[in-house]
Amino acid sequence: MAVPPWLERLLNTAFFNLCRTHGAAARSECNMFCIDCNADAFCLYCRSSKHRDHQVIQIRRSSYHDVVRVSEVEKVLNISGVQTYVINSARVLFLNERPLQQPKAGKTVSLVCEICGRSLLDTFRFCSLGCKVEGIKRNGNASFCLDAKNEVEYFQRGEGISREEKELREELQQENYPTTPPPPPHARRRKGIPQRAPFGS
Question: What b/e sequence results for 82-113 when a residue is b if at least 16 CB atoms lie within 10 Å of its CB, and e otherwise?
Fold first, then answer.
């Protein structure tokens, strides 16, 4: 079985809707998926009541796209060949293909996703889990089985890469995840701990 049935269900599931059962509670968005049940998304409260001893993956959001942490998904899938990113100090990968960005004039992109053509930052084959699923269906030369480690290891960084390619990768990383701008120069900083005014007598 090249593609687990639960994975295709995961990729087609809509996340971050309010839970029908716990909609009035805080943090009741449906951002969990149970591998054992292979059913719809559910919330944090449903997990504690219905999926306590099950294999559950939490879906997160980055730039309006669904991502999953590598540390969670690599326990159940071989994710080699899929581009990973570091977001909020955690290594993540995208669930599905994202809209293509237009390359800057004069820049050539040598590393692209085999399925959608999206530019990649490293020597990977796919930009998302969805593209890897499509690659397996088309070509059959990749796998999600944990013992199939013959693809490019996802932690491997490109060695022997030219300086131009390194600059292009850094530029693409900045385009995908721009740095937080500094505060405006006229912003005032608090100069100490606020003190209550003494009571007058």
Answer: bbbbebeeeebbbbbbbeeeeeeeeeeeebbb
Q: What are phi and psi of 133, to 5 degrees?
A: -60, -45
Instruction: Write out the E strands in 7-72.
Output: 32-34, 56-62, 65-69
Q: What is the pLDDT of residues 62-113, one digit of tens each?
A: 888 999 999 999 999 999 899 999 988 999 999 999 887 666 665 666 788 8
Size of the chain in residues: 201
Extended beta strands in 63-118, E state? 65-69, 85-87, 90-94
CB-neighbour burial class of residue 161 (10 A; exposed 0-12, middle 13-18, buried 19+):
middle
Percentage of residues in the chain having pLDDT higher than 90: 34
